[in-house]
Each structure stands twice: as structure tokens, then as C-alpha cells.
Amino acid sequence: MLATCERRPLSATAKLFCFKRLTVVCTLLCVLSIATPAQTRGLDQSPPPPLGKLVDVGGYRVHLYCTGAGSPTVVIVGAPYSVDWGLVQPEVAKITQVCSYDHSGLGWSDDGPKDSCVLRVGEVHAALKNAGIKGPYILMGHSLGALVARLYESQFPEEVAGLVLVDSAMPLSIVLAPPVGNASAPSPSPAPMHTTLLRGLDSDPNFNRLTPRERELHNWAKSRKHTAPQSTDEIVQHCFSELASVIKEHLHSLRDKPLVDVSTDEDRSPDYVEFQAKLLSLSQSSKEIIAVGSSHYVIIDRPDAVIDATSQVLRSVRTNSKL
């Protein structure tokens, strides 16, 4: 139509039509030329630069983000994404080196084999070794990550100096147990921890405490599609099966390694309290910190409690003293 307008004499009506058509085209070109970075990223699917570096773990790479200096190194083994520790990692980095990790298929990490607790332990072990991060480490794990930390210690006890467990995932046999004395009753709704987990960290009212850039990276990471997904329930069950086969959760299996258990006051049911007591019994040097007013996502609701727990374990390791 524009070519036609240019090539032959036109009536006044035709000229007006061509002028309007040309105006529309120019307007569209102008809109495209001033599109915001966020809009153009919707068209350009290239990932944002990683916070840390990608480390080969045997045919694929995982993301390891290390900041700070000093020893022992605190290693965050999950969950959720490495960027979600933005309220904790910078503060811990002021007192020692701290590394966060994205397991395969999440964040900047490559896709890997079918997800499992054993796979995550292997990835962390290989990533630390290949990145030249020397142990022994203080392992920190939130939710499912707490199980990964415990399983790592059971497989590589000489590499672990202490643990910080943040609202550890519980066995589904506890979470979905029928009321005591009524075994035939239908299973109740998931406990708050699992309900919050289903909603996701970005649904927490304190999600805005992360910086705009961190929130943007979280949403990008969440949009990634895992090639071999497994439900959280499946992974949790697998983790507890592996732990049971290795350590039987016997008394003081960690000996006197410092352990701080960060729990919440969201659901102090008898089963929850009993589970926390079992965690404390794993070590002869253990302590519970209750993050008052926190949901399952303690790392953004009460990051101060997590930082305090880490500081106490770090001090215990450095001074060779009990909690």
C-alpha cells in the first residue's frame, strides 16, 4: 500500500488514507524502539549473567556463588534458589566465606540426571572440590536442604564441621498423619510448612525485602522448566529413606559437632516439637533457635535468626567449644 502511495498520483481521499496508514506504521516502529529492557527480555530468552560461576560436576555444570573470606566456609545447600539467600549471605560473608548453590536444573545450573537427595549431595561435593573450596565446612540447609546437609555429613563426615538446619522438612508420615487415636480418619491438610512451600517464596509477604534485582532473578529462575522434575514429596521421602539406611537417626550420630536447629512458632504441634527434639539429639552440642513470627521461609521472614545461628556454629567451630 505504501509503495502504491508513492508511485502514482492520488485523489485527496486516497492521500488522506495513505497518510493515516503511514502514521500507524511509524507509531508502531517508535513503540518497538523504546521498549523497556523487561519487555525485550520477554522476546530474548537468554539467561541473565550468573551471580557466581558454573562448576563442572561430571558432564554438566552447577552454579556456585561464593562471597566473603575466611574459614570454615559456610555452604548453603538449599533451598530454594541461591539468589533467595540475599538477606542472609551478605551478612554471613562479613565473618567468613559463604557459598550458595543451585542444584541441577534450577537457577543457572545445567539440567542434570533425575533429581534425588543423593544426586544433590554428589553435586555439592563435586562442585566444592572442583572449585577448590577446602573443608571442613559448615553446612546450612533450609527445608529440603536441611536433609541434604544431614545426608552429606553422613557420607562425608570428615568434611563437615557443623550444621545449621533451618525449619527442616519433616517426613510426610508426620505431616499427613491422622489424629491420634483415630487411624481411620482422613489425612488432614498439609502442615503450614508444606502449604507455604506449595505457594512459593514469592508469595510470602516479606518477599519484597529482597532487592528488586533479586526478585527479578527469582522470578526468572522460577520460570525455568526442569527436564526431569520430581515432586518435593518424592524427594523428601527419598532423603529420609537414605538417612535411615545410613545413620538410623541414632542418638548423637553427629557426636559433638555443633548443630543449631532454627525452627518456627507457626505450628508448635506435638509432632513438630518432637521432630525438633530428634534433630537436637543428633549432636551432644546442639541448640534450638525459635524464629518467632516466621513462616516456613525463615530466610526472608527472620534472616537475623539464621545469621545468629550461623554465627554461633562458626564460633563453636573456631574455638573448639560446645554450644
Give a written overview of the molecule.
Helices cover 42% and strands 14% of the residues. It has 323 residues and is an alpha/beta fold. Helix 5 packs across helix 6 and helix 6 packs parallel to helix 10. The N terminus is likely disordered.
What are the key terms here?
323 residues, 14% strand, single chain, 13 helices, globular, eight-stranded mixed β-sheet, alpha/beta
| DSSP helical segment count | 13
Tell the overall outline: globular
Calculate the terminal CA-CA distance, rounded to whole Å: 81 Å
Overall strand count: 8
Largest sheet: 8 strands, mixed
Order of helices and strands: HHHEEEHEHEHEHHHHEHEHH
Residue runs with pLDDT of under 50 for 5 or more positions: 1-8, 12-44, 175-198
Please give the share of residues in helix. 40-55%
What kind of oligomer do you see?
Answer: single chain
DSSP strand (E) fraction?
A: 5-15%
Q: Using the CA coordinates, give the radius of gyration.
A: 25 Å
Structural class: alpha/beta
Q: Biggest sheet, strands in spatial order?
A: 1-2-4-3-5-6-7-8
Mean pLDDT: 80
What does the secondary structure layout of this molecule look like, with pairings?
Layout: H1 2-7, H2 12-33, H3 37-43, E1 53-56, E2 61-67, E3 74-76, H4 89-92, E4 98-102, H5 117-130, E5 137-142, H6 144-155, E6 160-166, H7 172-175, H8 192-199, H9 212-223, H10 232-246, E7 259-264, H11 270-280, E8 286-291, H12 298-301, H13 303-319
Parallel strand pairs: 3-4, 3-5, 5-6, 6-7, 7-8
Antiparallel strand pairs: 1-2, 2-4
Helix pairs in contact: 5-6, 6-10
